[in-house]
Amino acid sequence: MSSELKSQKDGEVTSEGDDLTRLLYQAGLVALVPAMLAFFWLGLIREPLIQSGTAANLAQATVESRADMVGLYIKDLELRIDDLTTQLRGQTDAPDLSYARLSFPDADAISFIPLDDLGTVSISPGDFGLRSHIDIDIVRRAFGGEDPAPEFIFADDGSYTLFARGLGKPVRGVFVVEVSQRRLAELITPGNEGRYRIVQEISGTMSDTFIGTLKDEPLVSADVMGTLWKVEFSPNPEWLAAARPSWWGLLLSVVVTLAGIVASLYLLIQRSGQLLRSEVKRILEAAELRTPLRVSVPAITPLAKMLRQLSLLSRRQLVLQARREATRGDLGDVTVKDSDVSMPEPTEAAPTPRELLVDHDSASIIDEIPTHIFKPGSIRGDVQTELTEALIESIGQALAVMSGDRDIQTLIVAHDSRPSSKQIRTVLVKALLASGRDVIDVGEIPTPAFYFATHEAETDSGIMITGGHGDEHINGFKIVFHKKLLSGVGIEEILATIRSKKTVQGSGRTIRSRIEADYIDRIAMDVSLALPLKVVIDNDFGTSARITEPLLSALDCDLVSLNSPEEGPRPQGRCLAEALEALGERVIAEGADLGVLFDSDGDRLHTVTETGIAVGNDSLLMLFARDMLERNPGADVVYDIQCTRLFAPFVTRTGGRAQMSRSGQAFIAEKMQQARALLAGDFSGHIFFAERWYGFDDAPYAMARLLEILATASSGFGDIIAALPQSSSTPEILLQLESRSRKKIMRALVSNADFPGARITTLDGLRVDYADGWGLVHNSITESALSLRFEGNDDASLERVKGVLRKAITEAEPSINLPF
Length: 820
Hints:
By secondary structure, the protein is of the alpha+beta class. It is 43% helix and 19% strand. Helix 10 crosses helix 11.
């Protein structure tokens, strides 16, 4: 064995080389070589071609501009000749040409050649001022009824342009105008750009240069409209060189690109090391905890799992050693040899080995946490007895820890209009700031506007303080991390983090921001109404009142607003059916097109027709599905288990695919994302649009989309709903029961599901489908109750299905009084 190997201790860990940095350098070269080849191709091949093409295009554009100027001049002369010819038609055979001479100051000669008494004319050179046989040919064509194009004609005393127009129909004379070429010479006067010439091309003859200083072979040419001429152009090389694109732009782009590649490589090398060190630190800190660990670098996940296993093994070794010490009567400190186990440095969040052996009173504190308020998609409890300031602070600290684990530095905080929400916000924000998180306080807004903020603000994560549709004394939190609503395991992680007592410390900062105007503008930009509508809105004494008036104003609709927070506290136990009935009466009284009821935090809606009839949200979802599928045939639509069984066949007939989900906002959002659906909704009124919108449940936006549909419809809201598939059904029936009774009933129904002739679905509770109807029993997501719903083809089928489940529930719990 070599001396070098002998000098190393057993189990020593050393580093040899830096393969990661070497790999990053290789990756940089792989990125750099193609970029250099691309720039060489641009500089040596493409750029010269571009330069040459640019010169030709520039010269062509220049000569076409001069040709247009000459053409416009000739067109002006012809228009003046035609106008003069029209004025002379009423005169005798020898018209007065004094006016004509005044109209043509640039004409050298003007004459009129009439027909003789026999209707013929004999012309020779010298007659009527005609100089050559070319002049005579042009005049003869004019007598023949043509409008001959102007021609250049050479004479001994210079060249000129001749125009001829016949007078009258049939022609009884020809009006002849001879124009010098002074103006044409001015129009093609050479400049810095180069030299021009005008040539005339007559069929069967060669081109002759008539005007211009160009003697060399031209580079480009352009026809003069309405003539036999073309303008030819030869540019000056110096002018072309000055007009061509500079090479400096290419050189600058090369330098910037190379600098970007080098800077990115440098940043990658620096940050990769920092990232690995940070991940290793998190793994070591979490080795003592039983809470879930999420690793940001998948390649080191096996290492994290191995450390967790070693940590648990070390913990068991400590406990066994402590027990051996206790049996010997030694109650002193427990000592652990370095050779036995290696423990990470203890932190405030992780108890030391000695603390692991001592019974703490913390168990009683943990037991005082009302775990039932940690619901599948939110935290929600009584602010007087359950959601205490101490618990709010603990929740804020836990969310700060979880945010750090997800690399989230800044959180949006919003709240609804409940009296307790502002105080909860104060406690929560203090906890977040003390934990090192930054806060964007967007104030009192509806929940959909909060979701909008997580998509459009500087950060995509936040906390909404709201009790949903619960009574005034109920409040809580909805949490969004990276645009996704925290639910299920995520909510359990909050509770686990609180119990672990893990905290972080820091000094965050807070800023205030307003998002309502941006939210309203975004809806107004997406939705366009063909006609203004009149809408009655019941705000349920909630936060939606902050946006309904400006939103309806932006959509150019008339609004009748009811039950804003300023009108008083929300009545205890407000009944949905009674609220919809009152809304329907107000719609009829106002002569409105429809009524809309938002829940108090604005993420759910219910509607009534212009005749005051409440509309089921599964029917409303049908209407939205049909509208969306017209633009997106074959798209998926998600609906919850409480919706009518007519929904799936309707979507299929309309050209889409329907997919059933568990009830609950979080479950529907998850199913929607899995299926990549463009639309989703549930019977309770959460509507999710991913077509033209962000994919979260948004009642104000759903209302705007409904108004868009109604504004283009030829019939009213009530007739549109009546044309959809209908059945006999009940609303959601809530059966308030203690947790133990609910579990007993559901366990008995699911385990003893004996319903002959029925199809059983246990996706969410128990749903029993017969040929003529169905019934559903499951746990309510938001209430301490069982939720029931029934549907039948007709009233008799509905009563039969209700009777089947009534019997099954009574057998499971004979003492219960059923409300149906």
